[in-house]
From TrEMBL:
UniProt keyword Nucleotide-binding, yes or no: no
Protein name, as recorded: Integrase
InterPro entries in alphabetical order: DNA_brk_join_enz (IPR011010), Phage_Integrase (IPR050808)
Originating organism: Bradyrhizobium diversitatis
Family: Belongs to the 'phage' integrase family.
Record keywords: DNA integration
Length: 107
């Protein structure tokens, strides 16, 4: 991906420095015979897996989804991006999708 990337997004949008839109992703799903699959369904599947099958902390999977986790006080004090932890989570997700992951991935 790095060799052909347009920017820092895994799925870059057509506009400079923007991710792919939900509408575009939905059109890709439909074009490839996705049936009833939805963008939200992909995100929900990831969250279910991260919560039920791994020991990764909730705020890490929330950050991976682009969500603001915790209440206002927690968010005020948690200012890091958890990038190292998000990388580990996404590496586990990739192994899971490839069929190489144990039932409980290490955090």
């Amino acid at each position: 991906m790095k060799a052909q990337s347009l920017n820092h997004f895994v799925f870059p949008g057509v506009r400079a420095n923007r991710p792919i839109s939900d509408m575009t992703f939905g059109k890709v799903i439909t074009a490839h015979g996705g049936g009833d699959a939805t963008t939200h369904g992909f995100r929900s599947t990831f969250k279910d897996w991260a919560t039920e099958e791994t020991e990764h902390e909730n705020y890490v999977s929330e950050a991976a989804l682009g969500h603001a986790a915790g209440d206002a006080v927690e968010r005020a004090y948690r200012r890091g991006d958890a990038l190292k932890k998000r990388r580990a989570l996404m590496d586990d997700w990739a192994r899971y999708l490839a069929g190489d992951s144990p039932a409980k991935a290490a955090a």
